[in-house]
Specification:
By secondary structure, the chain is an alpha+beta fold. It has a single domain (5-200), classed as Glutaredoxin, CATH 3.40.30.10. It is 31% helix and 19% strand. It has 6 helices and 9 strands; from the N terminus they run H-E-E-E-H-H-E-H-E-H-E-E-E-E-H. It has helices spanning 5-14, 77-95, 97-100, 117-124, 138-147, 190-200, and strands at 46-49, 54-56, 64-70, 103-109, 132-135, 152-154, 165-167, 171-174, 180-183. The chain has a 7-stranded mixed β-sheet with strand order 2-1-5-4-3-8-9. A two-stranded antiparallel sheet has the order 6-7. Helix 4 (117-124) links the parallel strand 4 and strand 5. Mean pLDDT is 89; it is low at 4-25.
C-alpha cells in the first residue's frame, strides 16, 4: 500500500525526542517536552514555488511551519491529509487569530515528474488560502525529502501511465527557528490538528 510507512515512521521519530529541563512557557508545555525536540529533521532546501520562483527554507525564518510531502495525483490519503491540515489550521486561526497568522502551511511534492509548478498551484488552490506548494528537480526533491526523513518511491507504471507513489505521509510542525516540534495528527481529524497547534504555537 502507498502509505504503509506512516505509522511506523511516526513511532520511530517520536523515539528521537529528547526530554530536557526547561522553563514553562505560556500557552502550553515547555518546548523541551515537544515530541520531536532535538530531532535532526528538516534543513535547508531550494525548491520552486507555484509561480515558478525559487523558495528556500530560510524564507520562512520566524514562522511556524507545517510541512507535508505528498503528490497531487494521490487518489486518497494526500488530499485527505492536506484537507485536514487546512481545516485544523482554520479552526486554530478562528480561535487564536494572532497565533494562527504565525503558521505557514507548506506542501512539497515527491512526484516532480508530473507535479510541475502549474499542477501544484492547481492542487493547493483547493485547500487553505495561505498554503504554499513546492516542486523542483528530482535531485532537489530527493535532497529535501532526505533532510525531512521522508521516504518515497515510484510504483510500477501501468499502460495508462497513471502510476502511484509510495511515501511516508507525515505532517510536521516546525518552530520559528526551523527546528522540529511535533507531528500533527491528521489521521485523527481537523480538531486534533487544531489542538496540537494550540499546544505548541505561542
Amino acid at each position: 500500500m502507498p502509505h504503509t510507512f506512516k505509522y511506523v515512521f511516526t513511532a520511530t521519530i517520536s523515539a528521537l525526542s529528547l526530554s530536557l529541563a526547561g522553563c514553562n512557557s505560556p500557552g502550553g508545555p515547555p518546548i523541551e517536552e515537544a515530541p520531536l525536540y532535538g530531532a535532526t529533521i528538516g534543513g535547508p532546501f531550494e525548491l520552486t514555488g507555484a509561480e515558478g520562483k525559487t523558495v528556500r527554507w530560510s524564507d520562512f525564518d520566524g514562522q511556524y511551519r507545517i510541512v507535508y510531502f505528498g503528490f497531487t495525483y494521490c487518489p486518497d490519503i494526500c488530499p485527505t491529509d492536506v484537507q485536514r491540515i487546512s481545516q485544523g489550521l482554520r479552526k486554530f486561526e478562528q480561535e487564536e487569530p494572532g497565533l494562527g497568522a504565525k503558521v505557514q502551511p507548506i506542501f512539497i511534492t515527491i512526484d516532480p515528474e508530473r507535479d510541475t509548478a502549474a499542477v501544484v498551484a492547481e492542487f493547493i488552490a483547493n485547500f487553505h488560502p495561505r498554503l504554499i506548494g513546492l516542486t523542483g528537480t528530482p535531485d532537489q526533491i530527493k535532497a529535501a525529502a532526505d533532510a525531512f526523513r521522508v521516504f518515497y518511491s515510484k510504483g510500477e507504471t501501468p499502460e495508462s501511465g497513471n502510476y502511484l507513489m509510495e511515501h511516508s505521509a507525515i505532517t510536521y510542525l516546525f518552530g520559528p527557528d526551523g527546528k522540529p516540534i511535533a507531528t500533527l495528527p491528521t489521521d485523527l481529524g481537523a480538531d486534533a490538528v487544531a489542538e496540537e497547534l494550540a499546544k505548541w504555537v505561542r
